[in-house]
Specification:
By secondary structure, the protein is mainly α. The chain has one domain: Glycerol uptake facilitator protein (Up-down Bundle). Helices cover 65% and strands 0% of the residues. It has helices at residues 10-15, 17-24, 37-45, 48-76, 86-108, 114-123, 131-152, 154-166, 193-214, 227-239, 249-263, 274-279, 281-296, 299-304, 313-332. It is globular.
């Protein structure tokens, strides 16, 4: 068989590497497979709501599992830096969110957070009737993530429980205990619920604001390809801090249910903190997205770039521009 690869000449380099390679090398690519009518019929019969809920559940599972897996390694190995660290936990959550968006967002929109789902309903026209089913799917995905980690670390977890029982400990949901692998608990000296709420609120608002800026189609600094990693990085930066936060209602509630099943119902009553981890991000996200929508977003830029239209059509846009121009002239005068 004749060799299809030839030496590149100088003028080939000047035309660009892609053109040169296409000219000198013939690539034999496997043709895409055909899709049977049977598969098309099967996919057509799938309920859309079920596909969306499945994608949301899998997405939350991916980022929860990616984050609490290194937490388990750190807690069960006495925080040994050779096994796991806060940095690894942050990377686990951040990359887990990126992978969740990449794999599941094309189907469901990639909310993966009840607070974000509620904000989509408030600001983006997401149907309110879908909000409960999205939240249920997100919590279920977190629940599955917690179950899998407990199953994989069952031997070490039960050994830790036995050790604590031998030391006279009867409750296992505390910071550093088996339950803390799954959800957040404050330290024994962190009794100021106002402080804990404000910490959760600020971090939830921080993440939501970055998410909303990333989703802004008129923002020139983001692209669809970079969005998963930017959002993941925003979340992971906060996980690098050694503070008690959940930053996601589904992530906290789903795994807290697992903690209650295996380590005691005080997972919901310890220091009266659970409501902060479960609900704290909802008002925080609403606050952050309200600030972006009302004080930062420039809708005329969206219209100019073709990402939105005036509700009254082209005529309404022309009237608005005329009023703006007139007011500008008056101000100059």
């Amino acid at each position: 068989m004749e060799d299809k690869a030839h030496r590149l000449e100088r003028h080939d380099i000047e035309t660009g590497i892609a053109d040169a390679l296409q000219k000198h090398i013939t690539r034999h690519v496997v043709p895409p497979p055909t899709i049977s009518q049977r598969r098309l019929s099967f996919e057509h019969k799938r309920p859309r709501w079920f596909m969306e809920m499945t994608a949301e559940a899998i997405g939350v599972f991916l980022f929860v599992y990616g984050g609490i897996f290194p937490i388990a390694a750190m807690v069960l190995n006495d925080a040994s830096p050779a096994i796991s660290s806060i940095f690894q936990i942050g990377c686990g959550f951040g990359l887990g969110i990126a992978f969740a968006i990449i794999t599941c967002a094309p189907t469901s929109g990639g909310h993966f957070n009840p607070a974000i789902t509620i904000c989509f309903a408030i600001w983006k026209g997401f149907p309110w009737k879908k909000v409960p089913q999205y939240i249920a799917a997100q919590v279920f995905g977190s629940f599955l993530g917690g179950l899998v980690v407990v199953g994989q670390y069952r031997q070490q977890l039960w050994a830790l429980k036995a050790k604590l029982v031998a030391e006279g400990v009867t409750k296992f949901n505390f910071n550093g205990g088996p339950g803390s692998i799954l959800c957040s608990f404050p330290n024994p000296d962190q009794t100021n619920l106002g402080y804990l709420f404000m910490t959760e609120f600020f971090i939830g608002a921080y993440v939501a604001f970055v998410i909303w800026a990333t989703l802004d189609a008129a923002n020139p600094f983001f692209s669809p390809a970079s969005a998963p990693f930017i959002i993941g990085l925003a979340f992971s930066v906060l996980e690098f801090a050694d503070i008690t936060v959940s930053a996601n209602m589904a992530r906290d509630l789903g795994t807290r249910i697992v903690a209650a099943i295996f380590f005691g119902s005080d997972a919901f009553t310890y220091h009266h903190h659970s409501w902060i981890g479960i609900l704290g991000t909802v008002p925080a996200s609403i606050f952050a997205t309200s600030v972006y929508e009302l004080l930062v977003k420039d809708s005329i830029v969206h219209i100019a770039k073709g990402h939105a239209g005036h509700s009254e059509g082209q005529g309404g846009l022309m009237k608005h521009l005329s009023r703006v121009a007139s007011s500008g002239i008056v101000e100059e005068v």
